[in-house]
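Comment on this:
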Amino acid sequence: MIKPGHMFVRMLEWIVVSIFGTMLVVGVVQVVNRYAVGAPLTWSEEVQRYLHVWLVFLSLPLGYLGRHHISLTLIKLKRKPKLRVFWDRAIDALWFVLGSLLAYNALQVMLVAKNQTSPSLQMPMSMMYSALLVSGVMLCLVSIFHMIQGSPLYIADEERTQ
């Protein structure tokens, strides 16, 4: 049976893959229109830029779920097991602080940018900055999960094949 946490991770992975695929398709269409048709798209670069921001900020919690972040493993591995757990919890606490600051500052920027629109898409800029808010909240949630139970949401590669 698939756990709800695993479904969340799978959904997030599919969203990231979909964003990347959309960026690729928009880029190919732009190149074809520019060189084959002779009529470049005016909106494609902006779409790719905003999708890239979402891609990066949604990938951040995914990387943290699998503990693929930079860590001072040399220091950690030379310590006793109890100190390793303390080290991991300290890192989790720092991730929580990062997520909190990211979410808080994203809200501040969204309030400032709520009346601004993007040049070619005429999309509210607060929509683009909401990627930082979503990422910050997800980082906080993942850090809480890590602090409580280690990494309950992460699906190990062995489990994916089953």
In short: The radius of gyration is 19 Å. The mean pLDDT is 86.
